[in-house]
Structures are given as structure tokens and as C-alpha cells.
Amino acid sequence: MGLLSSSSRSLTSHQNPPFTAPNAQNLRDPFTNFCNTSNLLSTRRFQSVRVEKQGDSLNDAHHNQVLDFPGGKVAFTPEMRFISGSPVERAHCYRVLDENGQLTMSSKFKQVSEEIAVKMYSDMVTLQTMDAVFYEAQRQGRISFYATTVGEEAINIASAAALTIDDPVFPQYREPGVLLWRGFTLQEFASQCFGNKDDYGKGRQMPIHYGSNKHNYFTVAATIATQIPHAVGAAYSLKMDGKKACVITYFGDGGTSEGDFHAALNFAAVMEVPVIFFCRNNGWAISTPTSDQFRSDGVVVRGSAYGIRSIRVDGNDALAIYTAVNAAREMAISEQRPILIEALTYRVGHHSTSDDSTKYRPVDEIEWWSSARDPVARFRKWIESNGWWCSEDESELRKSARKQMLHAIQVAEKAEKPQVAELFTDVYNVPPSNLCEQEKLLRETMRRHPQDYPPDVPV
């Protein structure tokens, strides 16, 4: 059914799910198992290709010939053996918190202060609230489109918390929480979704295609995976300029089937650029399950094929995400290398408001992930166990977040729309004649057929 699965144990829920639950074994020490992992492929360049003999004895079977080939020495063998396409054991999945919000045995993670932990949780709840209100607004016909992040709140907020504002973000379209963490206001989110005059995209993008220069967050593009090679190019520029920062780019499991993904990983590995490839493997690329997406052990194994250090993480564990991204950022900058993170999670909501996921996946599957593996509830249990949160805080936060969100929508809905002329700006310094002709034709058409155009769009 396209469910995320693993051969190890620690992702198994303590509840009995209505289907085969995913499993994954805890990596005891993320820093020794991840940071100190050496690359399978060397970046050394060789001047020549030559064959060497090891030893002079023809009878010494252990001294075979080796080929000094670009990338490292390759030993010859008289045995014909094909590399298996299926590993004996699936790649393990790093986690810190179990489903009850308790630290797993011998878990090691990046310590989080009370201030950061509370902000992480507050932003996760705010993101949930924002999704709920915008989804309702779309169903009421007040905005044209929306896509939620339900089930992936930990990926959004925890990864953002491990970065700095100097790290450029190249998102897909399910990472508004990264922007929220960086200070993008609910009013700014609402202005974009309603496409009013305060929208930084001037109403030229469909809803949820956010972007902000101030927050170092590149504008969302609907085309799948095109942001991945862009991120590599940006990382290459950071390297050339000697900046102490890295780039992060987000994409889904479906994006890994695009050529852009493969070209980007290869370029990043060869040029040794500071970029974090963050794959949200949420089980479904709209209606295509991961079982139809690839035959490999998920996405994490593709990193080693390109010579990229990689890790698989529990995407519903905020502490694991925070720790992994923090370590990945440190390596990317200090070692000038790309890092691949595969986060196993689940898209609880529909792909978008244009989708009904119950048509292609069972409802009990959705309900199990929503209740048994909710990342927000799991993180709340942990901060409560530390004495950093209580039910009164919870009630106040949710009430305040919804009130602010509803107010932001009311303001955005009443704001003026951008001028029609904005459709033709910001591309050319001097608009070419054909673009001027199109603008003239549009204005004439609007004057002849006013009933076919929104009355609140200034001409």
C-alpha cells in the first residue's frame, strides 16, 4: 500500500495498527555513526590509468593486479560476481523519542534549551492551526488552492531550528514551517494566499507559493525537483565566496525520480559543495506509493551511489530531525561536502485541496498515522516531561493562534489586489514590444467584457 517500512524495530508503534506498521532500528550514536562515516568514493583525481602488480610471486593468489583508476584503486578478481540490487538489511533509521515522547535507550542527541524547545512546539501548533484555517477558507471558496503539512510538522520546524538565517532555503511546497520559524508572519502568509497588494509575488503565483528575500527563502515553484539543482548552484557560490553557511533544499520521494535530482546529487558530490538534500519520504507522491516509485531501499542509499554521506531519520521525531540537520550543517560547512537526509514520515492530509486521498489509500491507514505517530503530540509529551509545558499553556496557545490566523485572513481578504500592470513587470528592464502589445490587448478585453473579470482588480 505504499507504506513506509524498514526492517528494524524502533519505528513500531506501541499500538496495534490496522495494517503492517513500519519499523526502523534506532542508531545509538548519530555522531559516531553519521559524522565519522567515511565516503565510499574518494574525490582524489589521478593523472593516469595504469595497472600495477602487487608482489613478484606468480603463485601468490592474494596479490592480484589492481587498477589505479580515477576515484581509487580497484582490485581485479577472477570471480564474476554481480552487486546485489537488494541489501540484506535495510538502512537503519535514527530516532531519539519514541511514540510516547520518551527518550529511547542510550539515545544521543543535540541538547535543546527550554526556550528553543518551547518555540519549536509553539510553531508546530501554529503551523497546524494555519493549515486548518486556510483549508477551511479554501473549502469556503475564499482562496483557490491550498496544501497542508499535516503529519510533517516536525520536519518543517525542527529542521529550520537547526539552521541559521544565513543558510538559503530552496523549498518544494510543503515547508511553510521553515518560513514560519524564520519570522514570516501569519499576515504575510495570508497576503500571499489571497494574492493581494501586500503579496511579495504581486498576485502572480498560486496560493502556498511563498518566497521571501528577507528570510533567505527562495520562491516555491510547482515544477517538481527543479529547486534541487538550483540549490547546488547556490551552494557552489557559497563555496566560491568562502561563506560559512550551507544551502538546504527540500523535496519529496516523488522528486527523486526526476532527472534534476540525480544531476544535482552528482554535481554536488563532484564539486564538493555545502548543501543538504532533505527528502521528505512521506509514502505518497500524490497517488503514487513509494512501492511504485523505486525498488531501492528508499532514498538514503542513493546518496552513497553518488559518493554522498547520508542518513535516514524518523521524520516524526523533532529531536532526531534537529540533531541530524545540526550535524549535517556542521559537516557541510566544515568539510565542504553535500549531505543527504531521508526523513521517513507520512502525509496525513490530502495532497492538496484538489485531491481526495481516500480514493487511493485506506482511511484506517491515515487514521493510524494521525493518532499513533503524530509528531506534534510526541514532542509535547517530551516538553511536558521536562516541566516546560502544561495544559494551560496548550489552551492559551491554540486559542491565540486561531484568533491571529482568523484576523490575518480578514485583513488579507479586504486588501486591494495588485494593479493589472504588475502582470508585466519584474522580468525586463524595458518591456519588449510583444509584451506591451499583450498588456494593451488585455486592457481592451477587460473593458469590453468587465463581467468576466474580478471587479476588485485595479485596471
Give a structural overview.
There is one protein chain. The chain is an alpha/beta fold and 459 residues long. 37% of the residues lie in helices and 9% in strands. The protein has 13 helices and ten strands. α2 runs antiparallel to α11. The protein is globular, with a radius of gyration of 25 Å.
Task: Give me the side-by-side strand order of the main sheet.
Answer: 4-5-6-10-9
SSE pattern, N- to C-terminal: HEEEHHEHHHEHEEEHEHEHHHH
Helix-strand makeup class: alpha/beta
Largest sheet: 5 strands, parallel
| Amino-to-carboxy terminus distance | 51 Å
Rg calculated over all Cα atoms: 25 Å
The tally of strands reads: 10
Q: Mean pLDDT score, rounded? A: 89
Bin the strand percentage: 5-15%
Q: What gross morphology would you assign? A: globular
Number of helices: 13
Helix content: 25-40%
The low-confidence parts are 1-62
Task: Note the topology.
Blueprint: H1 30-35, E1 50-52, E2 66-69, E3 72-75, H2 114-139, H3 153-161, E4 169-170, H4 176-181, H5 186-194, H6 227-241, E5 247-252, H7 259-271, E6 275-281, E7 284-285, E8 288-289, H8 300-305, E9 309-314, H9 318-334, E10 339-344, H10 363-372, H11 375-385, H12 391-414, H13 433-448
Helix pairs in contact: 2-3, 2-11, 2-12, 3-9, 5-12, 6-7
